[in-house]
Amino acid sequence: MTKIRHKMPKAKFINSRTWQVNYICYLASQIQTGNYQCNGFTIVPYAFFHPKIVYFPHLKFSTHFWNAIKQSTHQSVARLFSKSARLEVERILPIQTTNYQRLIKTWKSKKSLFFKYLGQMDLFQKELAKVESITILVTPYGTNGSFDYLKKTNGKINLFITHRTDYSEIYLAKTIILALLLVKNEKYAQEKWWEKQIITDFLLQFTYLHRIFNAPLINESKYLSSKIMLDSKKYLQRLGFALKKKFTIADGEMMYGEKKINRLFSNQEQAVLKKLIQQQNKTISFDGIAHLLWGSEQEEKFSLWAITKVIQKIRNKLKSLNSNTQFIYTAYGKGYVFMN
């Protein structure tokens, strides 16, 4: 680690109506293009504390609004969307009072050490030197944090990030690091999405940064409940963005899109997964799974531990098909649900 002094970027917290409205337009653009869905985010019309949740408020958007979003010349959270799209959101988005004074106070007490340590990292020296200012939109909506940057004619950069009000300052630090990684390499926007998450989480949990914030990050692989997933599926359908089913069964062969996948699973795993797919969105009881595994001997051989191990093996193999998405959910005390 090389010690190089950098001037700390100016950070400005904002809560303007204009940018709150614009953020809703940005969220709409990410949903419309499927960016959130492809990266394993779950969209719901309420706030829920989980890093893979997107809170997109349930508003009566017109077809005109979605057309305006579709015709936008950009998908940047740092730039204003069309006036027509923003005017519609302005009319229907409730005015909310956002109290973020505690966040500002806590951030001010930690920002000097945070930027000092980042400036000493070889990973960020060049990028941090380019950053002139950071604008932070504090909002009740969206993900825990969105980000982008704007280049100035003098070569300097302005970071624009959002921070959801129900998250602590460690998530603000995380969003800033993610934004710096994007400045470092544009491929971190999509192609290396998971790589930048891993780098950021490592820095915040296993380096000196952990001593600054002394707070845990929620494991992004932590499963969401089947209720939340069903809420999301229904909400996307209401918005007009119902997802195509990824898993089907044709002539006894399980298909993931156009790909045959029976060979990936043992006979027992196939029996369980086929039943889950056939009965998707419905709970398959532990007894039902036990019957698939052991048939007439299910009472003698019944073992929740063995059932859990089989389900975990299936989950791990499904991850090899789509690492960003969870398909099998636990209905606690009842069994399992497959959400396609």
TrEMBL record:
<dbReference type="InterPro" id="IPR001867">
    <property type="entry name" value="OmpR/PhoB-type_DNA-bd"/>
</dbReference>
<feature type="DNA-binding region" description="OmpR/PhoB-type">
    <location>
        <begin position="233"/>
        <end position="340"/>
    </location>
</feature>
<keyword id="KW-0238">DNA-binding</keyword>
<dbReference type="GO" id="GO:0006355">
    <property type="term" value="P:regulation of DNA-templated transcription"/>
</dbReference>
<dbReference type="GO" id="GO:0003677">
    <property type="term" value="F:DNA binding"/>
</dbReference>
<feature type="domain" description="OmpR/PhoB-type">
    <location>
        <begin position="233"/>
        <end position="340"/>
    </location>
</feature>
<dbReference type="InterPro" id="IPR036388">
    <property type="entry name" value="WH-like_DNA-bd_sf"/>
</dbReference>
<dbReference type="GO" id="GO:0000160">
    <property type="term" value="P:phosphorelay signal transduction system"/>
</dbReference>
<dbReference type="Pfam" id="PF00486">
    <property type="entry name" value="Trans_reg_C"/>
</dbReference>
<dbReference type="InterPro" id="IPR016032">
    <property type="entry name" value="Sig_transdc_resp-reg_C-effctor"/>
</dbReference>
<protein>
    <recommendedName>
        <fullName>OmpR/PhoB-type domain-containing protein</fullName>
    </recommendedName>
</protein>
